[in-house]
Amino acid sequence: MKKLLFIYNPKSGTGRIKGKLSDVIDMCVKEGYEVTIRPTQAALDAMEYVSENGQRFDKIICSGGDGTLDEVVKGLLESGCDIPIGYIPAGSTNDFATSLGIPSSPLKAAKVAVYGEPFACDIGKFNDDYFVYVSAFGILTEVSYETDQKVKNVLGHMAYVGEAIRSFNPATLKPYNLSVITDDRMIKDDFIYGMVSNSASIGGMKILPVNEIALDDGEFEVLLIKYPRSIEEINMMVSSLLAQEPDPDYMYYFKTSHLEIHSEEPVAWTLDGENGGVHKDVEINNIGKAFQICVPERK
Question: Model's pTM, two decimal places?
């Protein structure tokens, strides 16, 4: 009998997956799986459990936010296993699931997790760590991991927006003086925000040209927002991002598979919305088609 690990974060989102567990497990059993169920116990529990036990299973289905998926993918990479992952999104924003076309309904997502087709997806290597869909620094990036989980559960994505508005103060914008090196360019400038992403949605919003984004092309989308000199420039930046047309007068936008970022002062980073530590020197590489995730069958 095929073996399946169902691992879920009971604290993610509203916890609604708990009310659907019986239906999801029944679906897995009917498909011929012997199911092991594990609710995560603490931060990094999913990563550690998958790293130590992943080789025992033929498929892993995880339910939680993007952070839970991030842990499962890292655990698989550490274990050396190449088995498909099914994902039932249950977080506050679920950016990566949105990019993959995975439904927000738990039962519909479960059907994709059990019956969907495997899709080989890129992943990011960040120094000695990994990220599934985004690494970022600068203004508002701390909001995702500093917002209380209970607030996220009640308000969903509006929790991020509310915290962002409260923490935004143009008078105290901090410029980050950085040198950015890729295979074909070197940029030195002052920035207030930067992200290296492999996703059509970031923070619940689509701000990049969606038709240019592919999750298996071996390249990241890089957005670096320059330090604004006036309120007018801030308004122009926001308008261009909402239109999904990054304005080269106020930001750099390009694709690459490799880049280095250097600064004289330590810079705080987030990886998939979680605390990624403080670094002066960062090297980011795209690992092409590093893991398989089940997506809706393509017509």
Answer: 0.86
